[in-house]
Amino acid sequence: MRKFAEYFTLSETRNIELSNSETIASALQWAPTNAYAFRTYELPDLADIAKSQRIVGNSIKVIAEREQLSGMYFIDGKVYTAEVAVEMAIYNPKLRTLADSIKDNDWTHVIRCRTGNWQVFNPATDTTLQSSEANK
Asked: Three-state SS across 62-80?
């Protein structure tokens, strides 16, 4: 299996292959400065995929599914409960769309990312990390 980290920025996602010995702290260290979050996953080695594929004519169609997909690791973000975020919107009109999304989608938590954007946060699967942890 090959290990990857998928980094999220405001304009793109970027996938970087990690060595099998690299940890979450390593993935955090590799994070682009404009990334607000990442998750990790594994893909089977190409040789293993090829063994299970059927060749038709001169071509082969290979589709690899992500395995061991982690929750999101948010970098330097601050988590808010839905109640607090909705209350914040009373005093800050720029957050009204966020408050509406929270209510419409029954979100229980949101996170303000280090890039200033807001994302849904699932406390059961998602984690916050401090960029200072990358050097540990």
From this structure: CCCCCECCCCCEEECCEEE
